[in-house]
Amino acid sequence: MKKTLLSVCLAALSLTTVSAQDEKPVTEKPKGEVVDLYRSSKGYYGFFGNAKASTSHGEWTRMVFADDGAVWLENPISTLYAKSWIKGHKAQGDTIAFDLPQVIWEETFQGTTSYGKLYKMVVEETDKYGTFVRDEESQTLKYVWKDGKLTLCDNMACGMCTPTGGWTGYGENYFEGINIKNNTTKPSENAKVYDGLMLYLDLSDASQQWPVKYAIDGDDVYIGNLSTNLKGYWIKGTMKNNEVTFPSTSFVGIDTTTVCYAYASRVDYSTAYTAYGDPYDSTYVLNEPLVFTYDPAANTLSSKQKMGIHQSDGVREPLKSTDIFDVYRVPLISPWVEKPNSPLPPKFSAVMPWITDMTPNYSGVEFLLSYYSVDGNYLDPTKLYYSFYIDGEMVTFTPEEYLNVTKEMDLVPYTFDDEYQFYKVSDNTRRLYYYHQPKEKIGLEALYVDEVDGKPVTYSSGITEYYFNATGINNTTLEEGKVESITFTDLSGRQIMRPGKGVYIRTITMKDGTKQSKKVVR
User: How far is residue 363's CA from residue 398's CA, in Å, rounded to a whole number?
Assistant: First the structure.
């Protein structure tokens, strides 16, 4: 799945910094006709001064045909998720041309701003490996748009360079984008739609659960919400004699968070080995139908097979690959009624010492999160968040300090994982790195945030605190299980569901009816 660029890589590649830069990358989607593209790419990414080969398949990108005749392409290099656009124009025939260089990357880190420009590149055989260099003869990059497919012309390549022209290691020499529109499959208005809880085994034989939706519409059966970022999307199967057959691969939808086309398939796995000889389960897609059994008396769907959610459809050439990110073994889907309440408190599992031999100084913490409420009921993971505290103050994670945070965030979704500063180590374990040294303690709070009858509802676990001058982990400030709800209001008295930047009144209502109010500045 798509990952964003790490600052340490840019530092190692020495992107040239400048004090003044007139050009800026275009990061807002241009106005015009938007075309979704299923992308296959081949190229390179920078890794501590080296260029590593890469192929990708099933990524999502977009093209925009603007009203003024311009043609825009999003993220011209697959391995560099720059969230920027380059501007081109219609040329002769079906050709779309982009006049380079154009700025595609801007990053401010520790007060210094770095820029990257897209150039047309050629291969220079400087040694047995070769390298990309700027094309001194032409800086016009050409694609062909024909029959719903955008293709990089033969013998064309592009790469991100420093403003002075030095290659950073990020580049692309193959691109094919097929116009595949988003999935619009959904049950009819006459279908019976149910909230469901899917019980399944993961690859470690551990029992897990995931909230889904399912619908029965005559002989048509639908399953929806099959992955974290795919709420609202459905796959469709056909029922005969209570046996429901789904295609071997069903298009789920475009995952705009991890930037890919997502599919549901029957999968299996076999034992494979790492370069060091360590065994692991290698999952692959089967070209066989996915079959469930429907029990009308219990209103359940069950399967003895394995279902996987994955990037790419697994069959297109010339780049055949899949990235399977959810696997549900022997799934059982049953009716479910969620009962909101306070989530169980987080538990610290490891605390790093403060690191001073790197800039910036930092530390890290590992902790356990629960998907269950204090009264033992399962909670929807997409409604669960956690907050981090340093010396009693809630931390606001900002884009200036946290590379993959796009706006200020003090409620971190349970599902958030950037594999850099926020890690989802396992289903229940998270790891977080932070940059402000505590004087006395750190804390964690789990929150359930939802909207009921148009009104925001928040339940808190209370704050679990770790003291650096003590040997134990203590629950303080709020007693576990005693919190009824938490609400935020602005200074005009209006209730706010997800407070942004500003001044708010936070009111904690305890189960005995007492209330605690405090002004919070964010």
Answer: 17
Task: Find where tokens 């050709």 sit.
Answer: 95
Task: Please report, as a single letter, which amino acid is at residue 5.
Answer: L
Q: Single out the residue of 96, 301, 100 nearest to residue 196, CA to CA.
A: 301
What gap in Å lies between CA 244 and CA 133, rounded to an integer?
55
Q: How far is CA 139 from the centre of its chain?
A: 34
Whole-angstrom distance, CA of residue 319 vs CA of residue 312: 10
> 6, exposed or middle or buried, with CB in 10 Å at 0-12, 13-18, 19+?
middle
pLDDT tens-digit series, residues 134-162? 999 999 999 999 999 999 999 999 999 98
Kindly report, residue by residue over 107-134, the tens digit of the pLDDT: 776 667 888 999 999 988 766 666 889 9
Domain ranges of the chain: 7-178, 192-335, 347-521
* Percent of residues, the chain, with pLDDT higher than 70: 82
Residue 82, classified by CB atoms within 10 Å of its CB into exposed (0-12), middle (13-18) or buried (19+), is buried
Both ends of the chain: CA-CA distance in Å? 32
Global pTM? Answer: 0.79
Buried b (16+ CB within 10 A) or exposed e, 263-297: bbbbbbbeeeeeeeeeeeeebebbeebbebebeee
